[in-house]
Write a structure and sequence with these properties.
Length: about 120
């Protein structure tokens, strides 16, 4: 398994898809990286030579990924919570942040349903 930015990328998948295992790299950025280093995106990650892997590592280092990006996102959320913006208050309350409805769904953010006493009437 090749390691890029501290992440083991799977050998049996195409390099285009393998790069998406790195936090902050999606399909479009993966394609852009491979085009910049002139590596065939249909090649399997296990079939890459060391020279190609080093070129890809150098190109990936130009972008904010993994720990730096996670830290940046968490700092942005904390800032919103500190300044009491609308999104910050939603983060504090554990409710959906981006305008979704809450009276019917939102179980991912709100958690398991709470039982209310004497509700059946």
């Amino acid at each position: 398994m090749a390691r890029i930015k501290g992440v083991d990328i799977p050998n049996n998948k195409r390099i285009e898809v393998s790069l998406t295992y790195i936090y902050g790299i999606g399909r479009s950025l993966s394609n852009e990286i491979l085009n910049n280093v002139h590596v065939d995106k249909d090649k399997r990650a296990g079939d890459l030579s060391n020279d190609e892997l080093n070129l890809i590592r150098d190109e990936v280092n130009k972008y904010m990924t993994e720990g730096d990006l996670r830290r940046e996102v968490n700092m942005n959320i904390k800032t919103k919570m500190e300044i009491n913006s609308y999104q910050g208050t939603r983060h504090k309350k554990g409710l959906p942040v981006r305008g979704q409805r809450t009276n019917r769904n939102a179980r991912t953010r709100k958690g398991k349903g709470k039982v209310v006493a004497n509700k059946k009437k």
